[in-house]
Amino acid sequence: MSAYFDPKDKKNQAILDYFEQKTWLFIHSSSIVRSSIKKTITQLGAKASNFSDASNIEDAKKIIETKKPHYVVANKTIQDVSTIPLFDAHMKVMPNRIQGGFFIITEEASQSEIAWALEYEMDGIVAVPLNGTSMFNTFLNGVQRKVTPTPYLLKTEEGRVKYLQSDLDVALDLFKAALLLDKTPFESCAFMGQIYYDKGLIAESIASFQESVNHNPRYFKSLKKLNELYYQEKNYSKAYDINLLMAQNYPTAPERIPDLIRLSIINRKYEDIANYFKFFQTIKDPSMQMQNCLAAGLAILGKYFATTNDTAKGVEALLAAYKFSNGKYEILKSITQSFLDLKKGEILLDLFEKTDLNVWAKEVQALYFRTLHGTSKDDAKVMQVGEKLIKNGVMDVIIYRGMIERSIKMKRDSRYIENLILDANRSFPEYIDEFASLVKNKSL
Amino acid sequence: MKKLISECLSNETFSAFGYRIVIRNETSHTQVTQPELISIKELKNNGIILEMPINSCQKSHTLSLFFLSPELTITKIKLPKTGAYNEAEMEAMTKVEHIEVNEGKNGTVLVDMNFTQIDLKRWKKIIEQYAANQNRIDDMLMNQYDRREK
Q1: Do the chains contact at B103 and A79, CB–CB below 8 Å?
Q2: In contact, A184 and A216? CB cutoff 8 Å
């Protein structure tokens, strides 16, 4: 039991009463884990007779629909299936989130895991490994504001119920009434913003979400939606400001970093670019997911440095991007273009030739060909590689384009070139005109 | 307050948190030396629950647990047949009390064990580290509802 919670203290009676009257559904495949959680919330006043269990998604769905439990405590995945859709199912049967809520159990203890819980307005994340005292505090913190709700919160929840029932106009009136009941009504402003958005009133939506953020610059739901709206309106300067607020208050999920780099570039925040570059160099042993994000981010940086002719930094960023790319085609495509723009294709060629490209997707070999064609003076080698790739079923217009150009340069037999073009036209009919123009231009 | 998004990035966010464990079964004289096969499910005051490969142990077996820092980069771990493992930050000896087949993950079991030998002060510190991580998560989720500031 938490050292700070005395069940005999009168001030805690409201909490005990709240927990006592609530019904619970525990969704986890392990009875040991379910027992540990039940033991914790029993200490907060919950009654064992109000508990239900589910060890798979189907049972969980049935119980949510039939028993309509006030609270759900679910492992993030069960039998490799995400339980996140159950959140929406629960919201349908328990729309009033003062009466009920949702806690998620997650194996990933890193702070960047929090983003999706914020997005779904979960009441708490229980991080594994479980610990009695920590769990106690998580459940207590998660419901504290619901135990004795203010008139503002009650009115806001009334509005939420109507919103979820698609009664938008009544919901809007309820939220407007709620605005008068609190000095910082950020939740109601956010709901109003959502309703205006649903009605297609974008300017009003932005204004409401912005008001929500003005009242509370940490309210994640509003920050996220406002970011989306500013992007939609191509207001990248405001999008930057909102993302800054998010980054100041919450850990940045790695998959967001490439977009954030693009945003810094658009906003000409050159110091950001230098900082990202320095930051990436400090990350030791990144996970596979992190590597994908680093590679994408570094590729964007490399492309940026190529546009500013900062060759040294560009090459450094691109080399690091290649290292973390794990053969991802789209990232390597960007890296290839940037190396060629920097006129340093020979560095990439060397990397490709030192890599076992067979372990990567076939399409990547087309990028190798492109680099070879873009840098090598050895026509015969280019042709040899091209023919081999086509024979192995690597289908990319880059290969045909390169081979046609080299064949003309080598003054290959006209029948060879004709057959090559026929083959190219068959494989890429949308490029017929381009292939024809290659021959025409060289003939002039 | 930081004025650039890039200044808000922190290595802490992207680094793995939490200990990894390898096990030597003192009763059956077998070992589980791939930490990715073992995960900590619950920390108790006087014990621990681990998920591990099926048939790693039976009820009443004695296990030595070796706690490894997440920063440790040794790829192949070789435990001695007896005694301490130098790379471990902490060790504990346990007795298996209960085993449950893990329906959530084929080929694994959840093993509930109590400590028979442990440095309780160090164990308490480990629990505090995990609790601090949970607190950070709780604060991040709940502070957004804090109405004290405008």
Answers
A1: yes
A2: yes
